[in-house]
Specification:
Layout (H helix, E strand, L loop, with lengths): L1 E5 L4 H12 L3 E6 L14 E4 L5 H11 L3 E4 L6 H6 L1 H22 L6 E7 L23 H20 L2 E7 L1 E3 L11 H10 L5 E3 L5 E2 L1 E3 H10 L7 E4 L6 E2 H12 L6 E3 L14 H7 L7 H9 L3
Parallel strand pairs: 1-2, 1-4, 2-3, 4-5, 5-6, 6-11, 7-10, 8-13
Antiparallel strand pairs: 9-12
Helix pairs in contact: 1-7, 2-4, 4-5, 6-8
The structure holds nicotinamide-adenine-dinucleotide (NAD).
The site of nicotinamide-adenine-dinucleotide has 31 residues, from helix 1, strand 2, helix 4, strand 5 and strand 7.
Length: 306
């Protein structure tokens, strides 16, 4: 299958590129290297250094490649940054996504052509009444980042109807693993791991009870591989459905690194969800997907590249 992966130089996207190439697919990557790295891109993939805000450039690539699937991971994926300065996040995640959809509508190939999207379960449900949240929970984003992903989902559904292509929307938990960029704000395993390795003390925002649903990147990649065959016009959560607090993640990383220091506690940051876990029963039912990699094993593998 011919597949374009946007954001394929980034953390999650680059692992998906590897998996698709290993499965025998032909892959082209679109990425502007704003947070991704050229060295992450599998040498067997074609690489286009293109900003998805550039409608004409995106159209040219899709016209040339005529993909049967687009797996869309390019985004500005930082909650706090989006609160400080919302426009870049909205431009890339909403208008950039629209550019990719329009180009795929015009140039995508085949009757079963499909658009796969990396939305967020962590930032789209706000503070859900029930944890773990399933797909029927209200969407109440607390940040422009969460809003941008919700808008992205709606625009995908609109253009899928307009052009008659298929879509599968994933709402991700907190994904962690090798190649995660410790300079961002989302990769707490990479950030804490890097700081502990340098002998300094990581900062926890809040009292350590803030919680996320941590899922290893290989599990997320497996869902994206299944997505090429299964799941038509669905929105599907991925995750363990389990809350892992900041204190628990700190202790797990410290244990893996034999680190004996204590965290610094700083005030909570506004716009960040307090606690979330994502129920993935639907993914099990329609995709046969369940996470497999336990937290301690995943942390060990993630820390190898920090
Ligand atoms: P990442 O920053 O490593 O990857 C994003 C990639 O998109 C980078 O390679 C970056 O260079 C590229 N990019 C950014 N703006 C671009 C633009 N204007 N044009 C072209 N390329 C651009 O982040 P990640 O953690 O790998 O996230 C990948 C996707 O998964 C994002 O869409 C993110 O919102 C989503 N997601 C991630 C998580 C997580 O826990 N990491 C959770 C939920 C959703």
């Amino acid at each position: 299958m011919k597949i374009i992966i946007t954001g394929g130089a980034g953390f999650i996207g680059s692992h998906i590129v590897d998996a698709y190439i290993n499965a025998g697919h032909t892959v082209a990557v679109i990425d502007d290297l704003s947070t991704g790295f050229r060295k992450n891109v599998n040498p067997k993939a074609k690489f286009y250094n293109v900003d998805i805000r550039d409608a004409a450039a995106v159209d040219r690539v899709l016209k040339k490649e005529r993909p049967e699937a687009v797996n869309h991971h390019a985004a500005i994926a930082e909650v706090v940054k989006s609160l400080r300065d919302p426009m870049p996040t909205l431009q890339v995640n909403v208008l950039g996504t629209t550019n990719v959809l329009l180009a795929f509508g015009r140039h995508g190939k085949g009757k079963n052509r499909k658009f796969i999207f990396s939305s967020t379960g962590g930032a789209i449900y706000g503070e859900p009444k029930k944890i773990p949240a399933d797909e029927s929970a209200d969407t109440v984003p607390l940040s422009p980042y969460g809003l941008s992903k919700l808008l992205g989902e709606e625009i995908i559904k609109f253009y899928a109807r307009q052009y008659g292509f298929r879509y599968l929307i994933f709402r991700y938990p907190n994904v962690y693993g090798p190649r995660q960029n410790p300079k961002g704000e989302a990769g707490v395993v990479a950030i804490f791991g890097g700081i502990m390795k340098s002998g300094a003390r990581p900062t926890i925002f809040g009292d350590g009870t803030k919680a996320r649903d941590y899922t290893f990147v290989h599990d997320i990649v497996r869902a994206n591989t299944i997505a090429l065959r299964k799941g038509v016009n669905e929105t599907v959560n991925l995750g363990w459905g389990k809350k892992v607090t900041d204190r628990m993640i700190f202790d797990a990383i410290a244990a893996a690194l034999d680190y004996e220091g204590e965290p610094i506690f700083a005030p909570y940051r506004t716009g960040e969800v307090y606690q979330i876990a994502i129920k993935a029963a639907k993914a099990k039912k329609i995709l046969g997907w369940q996470p497999k990699v336990p937290l301690a094993d995943g942390i060990r593998m993630a820390l190898e590249t920090v």
